[in-house]
Amino acid sequence: MTNPPTYRYPSHADGQPSWKRRAVSLLGIPLVVGLLLSACSSTANHSSSASTSPSSNSGNGSNSNSVTTCVDNVKAAVANESAPVQWSLNAPAFSTSSLAGKKIFFDAASLEIPFIKATLNGLQTAAKAANVTVVPFDGSGSPATESQGILQAVSAHYDAIVLDSVLPDQNQTQLAAAKAASIPVVSFGSVNAGAPLEPNVQGEVAFSFSDAGKYMADEAILDSRCNVNGVIFNSSDIGTVTQSEIGGITGELKKYCPSTCNATITDTQVANWATALPGLTRTGIANQKVNWLFPLFDGMALYIDPAVVAAQAASRVHVATFNASSGIVQQLKQSNSPLYADVGSLSEWLGFAIADQTFRVMAGQAAIPNADVPLRTFDRANASSIDFNAPETEWYGASADFIKHYDTLWKVTG
Asked: For residue 239, what pLDDT is reported?
């Protein structure tokens, strides 16, 4: 039997991977992923693989009519969630002409993370069109360095500060200094989309983690024909966004198949992923009724998927996760991988959304409550027609349309 591959993350000088301690770093883990190929795995199908009812149910749960209704309803949801993304933001237009010559301080948890670099590229592209300069600062995975970055921006009298994967609740003293200096702060990803602003933060950009959870659950419900017996892999040390994602998963199971779908939750700190997740996976799938696993971030799948393959359970147990990280999402094309769905968002679009919020507060406008950056589910059905080696915009079917929309909002064109 071939041993499952070993995965490693690039580390910082202190030897610690850059994604430890925070949620959003997980959204762009630098990945060099080997293919999940193992001689001991079976070929998986996209049809239902689970016919047993969840262990919490006393009977078969639903008759054929109710199953058909459930499948029809969730099929429509999955079709929408896996379709190319569309622009939906409805926000007031404003002029960026007054911002020419201003400077934005971009305080990043780590500039080694591909997702952060791609987001920064989007922000810089948008800023260039407005004649605004973006100055990157590398926190190098160190909370102390990130905090120093904020104070450096205050001392240098920047016109705005953007926090990418830097948690506001850990930097309230520094953010209070920015507020006292009349420097607006925009934070990315520390809360669920649409949540109230955090203290001393003037604008937020975030994913809808709850929608990500919904999309993951919908794939499982459809594939299992409304018969999900799942395990959710949480990392509660990441923060409140994980509860939003968990709520999305459990809410969909309750909505579509309350008597035939359930999920238990296991919790592992981020620092222990490599050592704990393989064992927790083996324990979970030892229950022969378990047919779906929900790691909240696809970096977790690096340790979960090989454990499923090694147990020769990939034909029974499927995985749905979040981030659509390059190097992981490609596994959707591999017949013997347990990965069946990976929800993601276009990083360059996110960079423009951050620019939009930052431009607004710099121009004296009110921040919008939700940047409305869309998600897309990648699954076995649409992955066959997507080239994951192509630019990310092609994955999402977005082309450059979102740029045109932002240009219109900022009165750059028209």
From this structure: 73
**Is 169 part of a structural domain of the chain?**
yes
Secondary structure (DSSP) of 266-289: EE--GGGHHHHHHHHHHHHHTSTT
Please, which pLDDT band fits residue 63 given cuts at 50, 70 and 90?
A: low
Domain count for the chain, please give it.
Answer: 2
Please provide the DSSP assignment of 318-360 as one string. EEEEE---TTTGGGGG-TT--EEEEEE--HHHHHHHHHHHHHH
How far is the C-alpha of 188 from the C-alpha of 206, rounded, in Å? 6
In a domain, 163, yes or no: yes
Domain containing 115 equals 97-207+347-373
152 and 247, same domain (yes or no): no
Q: Indicate the residue among 344, 360, 389 that finishes a domain.
A: 344
Q: How many Cα atoms sit within 13 Å of 1 on the Cβ side?
A: 10
CATH of the domain at 311: 3.40.50.2300
Residue-level pLDDT at 236:
85
Q: Which residue in 28, 42, 36, 26 sits closest to 6, CA to CA? A: 36
User: Measured between alpha carbons, how far is residue 111 from residues 141, 146, 289, 353 in Å?
Assistant: 9, 12, 42, 19
Average pLDDT over residues 194-221: 94
